[in-house]
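Batch manifest, entry 17 of 40.
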Amino acid sequence: MTVLHAVAGYLPPGRKSIETIAERMKLPPDKVKMFRRFYGFREVCYEPEGTLVELLLAAASALDVLPGLRHRVRYLIYARGVAEVAPYPMNPLQRVRELLGLEHAQAFALAAHGCATGLQAVDAAGKLLASDDDPDALALILAGEKIFSHRMQVISDITFMGEGSAAVLVGRSGERDRMVSYASQTYGRFASFWKSTPGSFSNYKEAYPAALAEVITTAAERAGLTLDDVAVILPHGVNTMSWHRLCVQIGYPAKRVVLDNVAVAGHSSCADPFINYCTAIDDGRIRPGDAYMMVAAGLSGTFSAMVFRH
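Output type: structure tokens
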């Protein structure tokens, strides 16, 4: 069994309006209007003076239970959407491990699933813990990235990236937030998206709705549920329009998709589903016994959905 023992999200207080960012990047006014009016963006979390280590530590520090459970953390996993997050030879993850007092934990990063890597990390953590000889062992997952280039700030006509982070403590047992199912599919033909090959963007946008709908329905079926049984969907915050369209396609109420953070934080890479979990819990949108689903897609061509029982 894979269980979320604790989840914390962090949204930096620093914000930039999308108009401010657009002016710096010389985006045309009609594109800015599209992002605000149709895609739901107003501002994004952006603190250029902050560091990646500080961003990840902020989320970990929000896990109130971590100090008392530090000795049980066997694995430290950094889930990120891109392969490079710092210049060589810097290693932010090792520095975070030292500052958290987790030198005894095995630390490694995952990135192959793009922005869906956060869910891959939960699955990997569960499998590692299942094979561990200590039934009380835990895994700590960290997610979140700094926006260090123009290319990372705005991705084509899809999204504005933000600098939120999340920390997730995963264990083998517990009565709440048990993982019930996981569905993931990778389409290798989109692996070259970042190389801007001819037609890669339009091909990805064309395949996106059907691919995401498939993993959502598959995850529900594997959990023995219908979509009506899923209390809320905790999405990657790529934009609001794509989710409204997808909800029409799969027959799911858009009001039950937690999109609150798109307007005020932007798309926080792998951290989005976990940040949205915190929002849903704080708002009472997930109650004991509810089934809920985390959903994410990566530009690498990976689409994933994971069902939990709260």
